[in-house]
Write a structure and sequence with these properties.
alpha+beta, 5-stranded antiparallel sheet, 11% strand, 2 domains, Alpha-Beta Plaits, 5 strands
């Protein structure tokens, strides 16, 4: 077994990188720069995030001193306003067992896959809002959802803060520009209202 499998040079940290717009998965846009900066450090071989966005795994270069490890984690905490507490005991063992499985862990740019999944979840949520206000849009729902998903995916992958007001406004403008000619006035109003409410779930939404 190599050190990654045995856990000799792997440390796990509890982190708050869950996606506020898609509960249950990690936030790709938030975690991506963190993972990439970690892997840019010579003392780190690999950096991974679990699917839920709750555990960060760092594979340290063999022989890295404890002080150097601690300094690297503190630097990332400060630079990204991130809480990261090292797991110990049973929590560490459970994380290592999951990590060894090789399933549902994402490294660097791989977290874009989480952003793609998140985009679909957000699009589904927005479509429910729109159809509730404008039922006539239902026959166009599949077409509209596909366009929504593509625009949201681009926003999530490219933006450091996809939930910021400018990003939401850009999304709404891009969406109306792409589909406005194919919708009625009431449908456009419903679409604008749905996007204005934001990407995150409102009360009663999933």
């Amino acid at each position: 077994m190599d050190d990654r499998t045995t856990g000799a040079n792997v440390a796990f940290y509890q982190v708050p990188l869950m996606c506020p717009a898609a509960p249950g998965i990690g936030c790709g846009s938030r975690s991506k720069p963190i993972l990439l900066v970690l892997e840019s450090m010579p003392i780190i071989e690999e950096a991974w995030l679990d699917r839920q966005g709750k555990v960060l795994a760092i594979v340290w270069t063999a022989g890295t001193a404890e002080a150097a490890r601690a300094n690297a984690v503190v630097a990332v905490r400060n630079a990204h306003n991130l809480s990261a507490e090292e797991l110990t005991g049973g929590a560490q063992d459970a994380a290592l067992q999951s990590f060894r499985s090789g399933r549902d862990w994402y490294r660097g740019a791989e977290v874009d896959r989480l952003s793609e999944e998140e985009a679909g979840i957000i699009a589904d949520r927005l479509m429910l809002r729109v159809t509730a206000k404008a039922p006539t849009i239902s026959p166009k729902a599949e077409w509209l959802r596909s366009i929504m998903t593509n625009i949201i995916r681009s926003c999530l992958v490219k933006s450091r803060d996809p939930f910021s007001k400018p990003c939401r406004e850009t999304f709404a403008d891009d969406l109306i520009a792409a589909v406005g000619d194919h919708l009625g006035a009431a449908e456009i109003d419903a679409l604008q209202e749905a996007t204005k409410a934001g990407f995150r779930p409102l009360a009663g939404e999933r």
